[in-house]
Amino acid sequence: MLGLAVKDATPTVLQQYGPQEQPAKPRVLVPRLHTRADAFGVTVTADALPQVGLSAWQDASEGLCDAWGMRRIRISQPKPGVIVARGFRREPLEAVIHSPLLGPDGSPACRPGQFVSTDDVLLGWDEDGTPIVLNLAYSAHALVAGLTRSGKSITVNTLLAYASLMRDVRLIVIDPNLGAVAPWWRTAYKVSDAIHPDEPTEILRWVREEMQRRERLFWSGRTDRITEFSPELPLLLVVIDEVANYTRHPERKARERFEAELLAIASQGAKFGIRLWLLTQKPSADVLTTAVRTNLSARICHRVDTVEDFLHLFPDGRDLDITAADRTMPQGVSIASVGDMRTPVRLRSVHLPTEACWQINDLMCAEGLKVRDLPDHIDLDKAA
Fold first, then answer.
1. Which Gene3D superfamilies match (predicted)?
2. Which of 112, 117, 225, 246 could hold 197 in an S-S bridge, CB 3.0 to 4.6 Å?
3. 297 assigned to a ligand binding site
4. Nearest to 255 by CA among 327, 293, 290, 204
5. Is 148 labelled a binding residue?
6. Residues in the chain with pLDDT < 50?
7. 147 among the known binding-site residues?
8. In 10 A of CB 342, how many CB atoms?
């Protein structure tokens, strides 16, 4: 009906040498279709026919939307002779989809130690429904920015949950506001909720000393980067929330000590198996120096106040068609460049609420993975 089939009047061999009482009827060539459904709609792969190529499918896209009941269709030609029609019943940036760590009822569907650092972590989907994944073993450092209520904590929940469930990762969380660290307080390798920089500085100094202890691996392994991890040689994930609390602390000497350790880890830590993730509401130059920020290659920017804030994460942001300096940007949507992604894309994070993180941590404690109690003044039963 849409002109994507071809009538072929060329007679077959039987028609050529058979009885000629009736004229040969033209054959209708219909493209072979392969369909695959997902959470957002359907992907249809078709063979291109003679004289029915990409432009013909694009011209027919509105008719396909109506016939298939889709909100929109994206047509592409990944290679000669193949057409891909991606139909969307739900927009990926609008759909709130639970993390695969949760079951249909919202309770945890995971077990402690089921992942390793080489497993891909599903962060979410871009606007075309392509999954955006993070691989801790093969990635480097990262910067996450966003205002309050922009959805930054949901993105961070996914990172911390997967890292906690990886048997070859040690999690270190520093968070003066407790929002990120509280669910993992009992099982993370090192934690701090200190407001003064001294305690976080001591943790970073320990990380840098661990980097020095691992130098011998470069000689024995004849390598310039540690890429294989185990419970005996774990990947260290260092997450610092509200980093501005320390880099803008009024006590100058304490601030400088913290920044010196932070810079050492940011510039050298990746090759020693350290992954540094910094979280901030405002990624301005007075919060993170250029020397630190240039080493944070993965970038996730939720809604921010100004274009200048966005440009601190994506310096070429004025040339992009997307921006995070948009007050209409939905909660949970960000601009991201992670892993092998060179061009930033819109990302809708999977939904992993803080309550689910507490439940996952309860499972870990039940498996004997608790390394510390909650602070003395916290009564978990009363808090619940």
1. P-loop containing nucleotide triphosphate hydrolases
2. 246
3. no
4. 204
5. yes
6. none
7. yes
8. 6
Give φ, ψ of 173 to 5 degrees: -125, 125
Is 354 annotated as contributing to ligand binding? no
262 is in an annotated binding site: no
151 is in an annotated binding site: yes
Residue 107 known to bind ligand: no
Tell me which long-range contacts 51-59 makes (C-beta under 8 A, separation of at least 24): 51/6, 52/3, 52/4, 52/5, 52/6, 53/77, 53/83, 54/83, 56/3, 56/4, 57/4, 57/83, 57/85
Residues 6+ apart with CB under 8 A from 154: 332, 349, 351, 352, 353
Q: Supply the pTM of this predicted model.
A: 0.88
Give every CB contact of residue 3 below 8 A, 6+ residues apart in sequence: 52, 56, 60
What tens digit of pLDDT does each residue of 5-51 get? Answer: 887 656 666 555 666 556 556 677 888 899 999 999 999 999 888 88
- Picking from 34, 278, 303, the residue whose alpha carbon sits closest to that of residue 142 is 278
Question: Is 230 assigned to a binding site?
Answer: no
90-121 pLDDT per residue, tens: 999 999 999 999 999 999 999 999 999 999 99
